[in-house]
From TrEMBL:
Pathway: Amine and polyamine biosynthesis; betaine biosynthesis via choline pathway; betaine from betaine aldehyde: step 1/1. The lineage of its organism: Bacteria, Bacillati, Actinomycetota, Actinomycetes, Kitasatosporales. Keywords: NAD, Oxidoreductase. SUPFAM superfamilies: ALDH-like (SSF53720). It comes from the Bacteria. This is Betaine-aldehyde dehydrogenase. Belongs to the aldehyde dehydrogenase family. It comes from Streptomyces abyssalis. Pfam families: Aldedh (PF00171). The keyword Oxidoreductase applies.
Amino acid sequence: MSEIESIHIDGNWRVAQSGGTREILDPADATTLAVVAEGGLEDTDAAVAAARRAFDEGEWPRTPVAERAALLRRVADLLQRDREEIGLTESRDAGKTWEEGRVDVDDVTAAFRYFADLVTGESGGRVVDAGDPDVHSVVVHEPVGVCAMITPWNYPLLQASWKVAPALAAGNTFVIKPSEITPMTTVHLVKLLAEAGLPAGVANLVTGAGDPVGARLSEHPDVDLVSFTGGLVSGTKVAQAAAPGVKKVALELGGKNPNVVFADACATEEGFDTAVDQALNAAFIHSGQVCSAGARLIVEESVRERFVTEVAARAQRIRLGRGTEEGVECGPLVSAQQLAKTEAYVASALDEGAVLRSGGERPEPSDVRPADGYFYSPTVLDNCHRRMKVIREETFGPILTVETFRTEDEAVALANDTEYGLAGGVFSADTARARRVAARLRHGTVWINDFHPYLPQAEWGGFGKSGVGRELGPHGLAEYRETKHVYENLRPAPVRWFSG
């Protein structure tokens, strides 16, 4: 298979300066999808230098807002033009279903259009009343500068768009490093940016490993902001590397997300069916490889046995296979490493006393096609408690744990008993109770009687070890800006503070 020129610097596609390459594997059968450049320090420094020149000397930061917004809308149109191709690439690269890939493209399109509309609708700045008619005082926003973007493997294109769209809308330049195992749709996105007319040097891409590429971006003195989405351990390293330069850092570090189900949500057959269906959706979309996955089912004791029995029965019926095949509902895990990690979490849970209600193993070869991919059966673990490793840590696999509660206070305490605080769900037929519990949850997004939807106009991010900063919404744009106060004296005169 021929090598893809996956490094993009100053408007040019190239191979790695070292000549290094990496095979990108299809997680459905472990075959090679593509061979991409394995960038290193030299490529990273060259990309940052190009972004620095484009910001300091180029036209993009000084391009009128309306023109920047128009380019973002052209990119959105191109994304829709290539929807089927990009969705297929995302499916094959990350292991998700083709339909999930298509939905991702639609969500990315919406993000580009949202930030285009947001900056277009802004005024020229916030006028501040100085209390003096001879003073004109205004607060304006300017681009941060050169942005380093490090994105994860589970939603490669979506997470890239949450950074790229606001960064460009604000007038920044950037270097993006996608995950080394799922870079393909980011390469496609950068091609679309060039096709839309983005000036050379504004968007730069380096494919390669977190060390050295991500590490160098985090510490580089010519980088003004680092935006990272990924795991807690890597995010901590990014923050430490960025600290000596006192550069801006935005971190989205995942979550251990509770899904609280009250008995009253199950009082009717329709309510019961909805809550069960949403529990499956919360836990097993994209094989649980979602930072906001509702991996902790916290269910009221009076309905626990019926609820968990039905969840486990339906989990066993989830159809596994290659994401491009008709009827497949769940694809493989992204890599052999992630498969081994999932197996280890299940084993540790069983050792600590959890009760296996479904899954807990790789599917039989006769039950899934292709048979040699990184598949793991959707797993439900009952009788779990807070001291278990599988409850404390982000598993990022098709694992749903079950805890129970008797009172509202106990439900809230369990849901908040985590170092993370990204997202959570509350299911209740009692609107007052649902809103009351949602207000008490220490999580950045809380869904009531739903799980997983997000809006580009609403901020995304978490409390605690889920990170710092926000993506999407007005605050997602603000992450890529500096705030400046301009104070103008309209009638300057001597102050006479000093007698001389």
